[in-house]
Amino acid sequence: MTTPPGYAFSDRTRAAADVLVARYPRSRSALLPLLHLVQSDEGFVSPAGITFCAERLGLTRAEVQAVATFYTMFKDEPVGDWLVSVCTNVPCKVAGGQRVLDRCVADLGGHHADGVTVEHVECLGICDEAPAVQVNYEMYGKVTEDRGAEILAACRKGTPPAALSGEAPATFREVEWDLAGADDHAPSVTAGAPS
Amino acid sequence: MIEEIRVLTKRWAQDDAHTLAGYERTGGYAAARKALGAAPGELIQLVKDSGLRGRGGAGFPTGQKWSFIPQDTGKPIYLVVNADEGEPGTFKDRELMERDPHQLIDGMICSGLAIGSEHGYLYLRGEFAFAGRRLAAAIHEAYGAGYLGADVFGSGKRFDITLHRGAGAYICGEETALLDSLEGRRGQPRLRPPFPAVSGLYQSPTTVNNVETICSFPHIVENGAEWFTQWGTEQSPGPKIVCMSGEVKRPGNYEVPMGTPVRAIIDDLGGGMLDGRELRYFSPGGSSTPYLPADKVDVGMDFEAIAEAGSLLGTAALMVFSDQTCVVDATWRFTEFYEHESCGKCTPCREGTYWLSQVLARIETGSGREEDLQVLLDVCGNMFGRSFCALADGATSPITSSIELFRDDYERHIAQGRCPMGTTPAKRRPVTRMTDVRPPVSAMGRVALPLAGRR
Known about the structure:
Chain A contains eight helices and five strands, in the order H-H-H-H-E-H-H-E-E-E-E-H-H. Chain A is of the alpha+beta class. In chain A, strands 2-3-1-4-5 form a five-stranded mixed β-sheet, with helices on one face. In chain A, a hairpin with a 2-residue loop joins strand 4 (133-135) and strand 5 (138-140). Chain A is elongated and about 50 Å long. Chain B has three domains: 20-228, NADH-ubiquinone oxidoreductase 51kDa subunit (Rossmann fold); 239-322, Ubiquitin-like (UB roll); 327-437, NADH-ubiquinone oxidoreductase 51kDa subunit, iron-sulphur binding domain (de novo design (two linked rop proteins), Up-down Bundle).
């Protein structure tokens, strides 16, 4: 197997992959972190990303693809720098979440434009702040239609506002780097699991 | 007039509770230090005596679960913390981890000692980015202080924690699906037996516990089993965090004694219904638990009382609705959630959630047929109890309970050919759904057609 031409993962990515693979008693456990990692480099999980993970873990591309397509956070096309996720599950719907989503899609003229993707999601686990919106997995609460439009407009300019955490979200790639967890303090190579 | 109690949430008002210094200033890690001096058998007996039951939904006695773990297999024993909170209406674990991450680490050290484990995996829902940063920082600090690693508090004992983030799949909150996901696979439930206690992570003895359960344990270690039973009922002791959402004035997490009446939680803590609306129904434990009607509002929030009333305590995710929320629309939304989140392994669930969603869609959008209620009940009957895990059972709960309680609502939708409240315009599906954005191939492998206008 060779990496298809078109994308070369950085040295930083390769070094992080080494850390993640060494972290688990069985290397395959590093697959979800590795998929986050390739998204942090290329911005989505491309065929090259699938091959990268497969080669690192000694899996077939089909095995990696099967996992990548199972989880909604792994994107099979670029989402840009800002992923805006709007919840329309019941507590958010009751508070107007569907209208927030419809407004965002109308303002953006679809789901993707200007480095922003708007998606519909299910329950973000912050129902007391309904309707809830995330930008790159950073939470915003009690989002009215107008507030949703503001957040979206700010993302299009590349400057999303501070979220409930008090911090403004980092770009999609930066957040995916955190989600991969290569910088986490963790024991490398743990006590041997039975093979 | 009831008030909140402060046990697991006692540091929520403390600004620096998420730091090691802040946590220790208010008594943190006293439990881990104390647990290091106890024999594992004593710790398991302690949790048995406390009567602590799992806070992740099923309510299984924690001490009993831990005592199933064989100590003599020669394999490592794993502690896995289920932080993949995703049940609609539930948001307690996220706040516990964001505000007081060291409490969870403290609890993991104590729990690891109880079951003889040297390694804990913390499986965190991927979308909880802020909680992830807080936990990563707390784990880093705990290693730096020598509270984690090869020599926990200078005791010579080892305990490690690996933080592992998921990637967006509700099913991974099911413990065996979580283990498959942690092993780098699609998150699909396993056939039991063998149970995780015997053959879990890497086929080794494993216990999987919810965040709130693990956070309860250090308080029991510190204060004793009897202290813990001062709250709650005989069968459901202790404090419990209730996640209240929906049409109330002050939604939020409220820590109360088990058994606190729903009415008191809504009125005294939640400030009553929004805009003077009238309570019509509520979901006591998350979207997987049957709705209860307003006349059950005096029921206590504990496992037995809620079960007797005809529902389940679940995660104590209390969602409150008035007559302004169309029950058919709410039920349809929940069902679409299960349709999307079904992992696709078991046919009754994969196909059942899809068809339930189709039938509810046509009722809500004005094309319902007379036979549809029977179709819904038949499909639910063919799903319940026929899958590897409880997702399908949960998916049927809002449907069967709403037809039982509010059959008239469904019949009016069908007779009038529209949603009588106008929640959804007739003959038109709401505009934007997840399938518009995401998958060429969905989680269950069903191929969706590419949509016009995509780049």
